[in-house]
């Protein structure tokens, strides 16, 4: 009798966790992109993710190039022709959908893309000279060159205004001194967007090429986000040509404009990571039996699933609305507070649920056969970088109450 009841209920399991049908509401080209990207990633990248994670191997550049070539993803976020390469342009909803599908595989893979697009190509596009754009954008769009973004320092993380790296003009060069910590892609990057203060303390952005004398990169080892490599940068009297300054980058506001783009992708990406955890754990819970019934029939386990799915749907609605608003505005700038809220909420809730869902896997959670624990590990960093959850809470509180988030001069 008991078994028959379980079978009856199992046949009624709702497979589609998109309870509002948000996906059906997307324009056809966005649905097609999501489906084809998901298919490609599941066939070519997901099967290798656990192995790369175990070996702490950054996704090979050849794989990134193949992904770009196979999916037609080039330079998300702007249009025009640079260095003979055409950038077709893309709306924010499409950008979000792409980041979601990539992070559904792994947050480290999405981090590589976020840095390449939002934190290296966007500043060059917004603040660079025509020469800089023509030289670097086509290479970066095709992963012929990999980029990295150096803002954080060992003693300046949440408070980037306290950075001490200097770029001081000396004749026909800027001389860089200082260091940067936790720089994604650094061990494999060819070009670095480095934020530093000039002699008057004004923050600007400088392009530093790998192998420039006086510039060294040391790889960091870490237990999270292992599909993207991370490095420490050191500058000791490192001379770069004057032409390597991004002339339009003026102050921290210029850096925040880029971070806003990246945070938007992180919000969508976190939703993708959570979706993967739910999709892995639900079938496990309905097929693994303990005490005579499936785990899915035990109250404490089904509660974890229901709470994860409820938050997943709220987050999907949130990022969809942020995308729609951005596309109406034509920019993320006027809605930076919504982007900040979405980044915080999506990464924090995805982290909370990934950690809880992985417990449903019991001992299996810690094998490399299941992906949920890898997502949970990754999401700790996703919560931390680009403004921790604490920092985004403070920003929203400032906007609502008027009391400043941080001490200001
Ligand atoms: C794997 C990885 C990749 C990264 N990639 C990059 C990259 O590519 N480029 C780059 O520039 N940076 C990168 N970062 C750096 C990242 O942005 C910083 O780690 C982040 O901004 C937090 O800074 P912090 O680590 O110095 O922590 P801290 O700023 O020291 O914060 C420590 C804790 O204190 C809290 N805290 C800090 N200030 C306040 C406050 N005012 N009120 C309340 N709580 C507070 C924080 O929320 C946090 O919990 C990366 C980090 C990691 C781990």
How would you characterize this protein structure?
With 409 residues, the chain is an alpha+beta fold. The protein has three domains: 16-146, Butyryl-Coa Dehydrogenase, subunit A, domain 1; 148-246, Butyryl-CoA Dehydrogenase, subunit A, domain 2 (Beta Barrel); 252-401, Butyryl-CoA Dehydrogenase, subunit A, domain 3, CATH 1.20.140.10. It is 53% helix and 16% strand. The chain contains 13 helices and twelve strands. It has helices spanning 2-11, 22-25, 28-44, 46-55, 61-71, 92-105, 107-127, 130-141, 252-287, 299-329, 336-360, 372-384, 389-401, and strands spanning 79-82, 85-88, 147-150, 166-170, 173-184, 191-197, 203-209, 215-220, 230-241, 245-246, 289-290, 293-294. The strands form four sheets. A four-stranded mixed beta sheet has the order 3-6-7-10, covered by helices on one side. It has a four-stranded antiparallel beta sheet with strand order 4-5-9-8, with helices on one face. It has a two-stranded antiparallel sheet with strand order 1-2. Helix 9 (252-287) packs antiparallel against helix 10, helix 9 (252-287) packs parallel to helix 11 (336-360) and helix 10 (299-329) runs antiparallel to helix 11. Flavin-adenine dinucleotide (FAD) binds next to strand 3, strand 5, helix 12 and helix 13.
